[in-house]
Specification:
With 147 residues, the chain is mainly alpha-helical. The chain folds into 2 domains: 1-69; 71-147, no CATH class. The chain contains 5 helices and no strands. It has helices at 3-24, 40-62, 74-94, 96-111, 116-137. Helix 4 runs antiparallel to helix 5 (116-137). The longest helix is centred in the middle third of the chain and has 23 residues, at 40-62. The chain is globular and about 50 Å long. The N and C termini lie far apart (46 Å).
Length: 147
């Protein structure tokens, strides 16, 4: 465990979570009379990010194990970074569900080769589930399927 890396990354994610929460609060809410609107899910996810990052920061600060140097895996980093760039470029033409599925599947396979069926099921459930909750329940807008 690289405690310094965990501390800095946790602080970065806490700041990112606060920024996302503040941005989500600027989203417009329809006057349809429902209590839950498009900003509910991003706000909820930002709060979860803040809570988990705070827990990770506390664990890194309390850890008694010596800080060991780990080999950085640049190849995996660049594969995921390029996948993220492709995800951002393909989200409009392919839609949220397909592009998110492909990004998650590529990320899962980059981190751990094999278990294709498990990776596909988890990626499909996550991308489809988030799309359903955000669009159908929270009345948000995400890029639809291309067909």
């Amino acid at each position: 465990m690289n405690k310094a890396f965990d501390r800095y990354l946790s602080i970065l994610f806490i700041v990112l979570g606060v920024a996302l929460y503040l941005y989500a609060e600027t989203l417009t809410v329809s006057n349809v009379g429902i209590a839950i609107g498009p900003k509910a899910l991003p706000s909820f996810l930002a709060v979860i990010l803040i809570i988990l990052s705070t827990v990770n920061l506390i664990a890194a600060l309390r850890s008694k194990t010596p800080d060991k140097q780990e080999k950085l895996e640049y190849k995996k980093f660049f594969i995921i970074f390029i996948s993220l760039l492709l995800y951002a470029l393909l989200i409009e033409p392919l839609g949220y569900v397909i592009s998110t599925f492909l990004f998650l599947f590529a990320g899962f396979q980059t981190m751990e080769r094999g278990k294709y069926l498990h990776s596909a099921i988890i990626a499909a459930l996550f991308s489809g589930g988030i799309y359903y909750f955000y669009v159908e329940i929270f009345l948000g807008v995400l890029p639809p399927l291309p067909f």
